[in-house]
Amino acid sequence: MRFKSRLRPDRVSEFLRVAQLLDKVGKRCVLHLTAPEVDNVRIIFQADVSGSVAAYAHFARSDWFQSYRIESQNANQIGLEMDMQNLLRALRSATAADHILIKLAKKGVPVLAFEMMTPLGPIMQDIPVVVLSAIRLSEYQPPDHDRVSGFALPPLAKIHTLVDRMKVLCNSLHLKAILYDDRAKLSLGIDTDTASISAMFTDLSIASYEDDESHQEQQRSTPIPEVEAVVDLRNFSRCLFGHQAQPLHATCFIHSHYVMVHLTVSSDISISYYIPRKISP
After folding, report:
1. Is residue 281 in a domain?
2. How crowded is the C-beta side of 18, counted as CA atoms within 13 Å?
3. Which UniProt keywords apply (predicted)?
């Protein structure tokens, strides 16, 4: 099993910014290094038994890595589980470097080694990792879902402020969307013994989520006039930190078992959050 690549110095700050958003999701992540013919590297957070948020961040590999070399018996892909704080520390060090080599090494335990050259001299930083078996890596897949119509979200910063105020009053958030031919309305609300608060957002565009862009024209999402869900307020809040990345698009899709919030951060970065639905009382 081998991996070695150079991280583009001009993209490190952006990589760090996205990693800081993902740090809001959980403490442990999986870096999925794909085969050379697959132009996609992922950072994954899997939901735990308590019903936390799952997140999948996709990076266009060719825009981030140079001289990408990888070999493994698992179709030349490698999954590395690591502490998110360790990854953040390495990326912060890399922001000052003009040469960044990343490689999988063994120093008593497996590590993802960062070898960086900065104006002050070389810096080496090792991230202890757990190398996932092929079976375990195969478990880190997005949830199955039906194709449903979604809607564009209002400005995330605005929703984040609203949800933060609601968090002190309630643990559950009620989402209700009404979809018309080309527009949607979204209601966000909470209900407590002492108060009922809701906010309505109108004139939102309709969104279609496609697993495979090559089938975009052949397979269309199923329109649903009205859809609603109840989710944990703190879970929903975690995905709203994405406003700090100023995403190009933010869309929401309400499925039978979860609510998905999809952020297109840039042309080569996207993040999908999967928030488990709660059973309505």
Report:
1. no
2. 23
3. Nucleus
* The pairing of beta strand 78-83 with beta strand 65-71: unpaired
Into how many domains does the chain fold?
2
Low-confidence residues of the chain: pLDDT under 70: 49-50, 209-224, 280-281
In a domain, 97, yes or no: yes
**Two tokens at 98?**
């003009």
Neighbouring CB atoms inside 10 A of 236's CB total: 24
Do 179 and 76 lie in a common domain? no
In a domain, 144, yes or no: no
- Composition of the chain by helix, strand, coil, percent to 5: 20, 45, 30
Note whether 44 and 32 are within 8 A (CB): yes
Q: How far apart are CA 188 and CA 249, in angstroms?
A: 19
**Could you tell me if 37 and 126 lie in one domain?**
yes
* 233 vs 174: CA distance, rounded Å: 9
pLDDT per position as a tens digit, 146-160: 777 789 999 999 999
Contact in structure between 117 and 132 (CB atoms under 8 Å): no
Please state, in angstroms and rounded to a whole number, the distance separating the CA atoms of residues 154 and 151: 9
Q: How many CB atoms lie within 10 A of CB 34?
A: 18
Of 110, 138, 166, the position where a domain reaches its end is: 138
Predicted confidence at residue 275, as pLDDT, reads 95
Helix (H, G, I), strand (E, B) or coil at 201: strand
Residue range of the domain that includes 35? 2-138
Contact between 153 and 167 under an 8 Å Cβ cutoff? The reply is no
At 210 the pLDDT is: 56
pLDDT of res. 245: 87
DSSP 8-state code for residue 148: B
* Coil vs helix vs strand at 102: strand
* Statement to judge: residues 118 and 222 lie in one domain: no
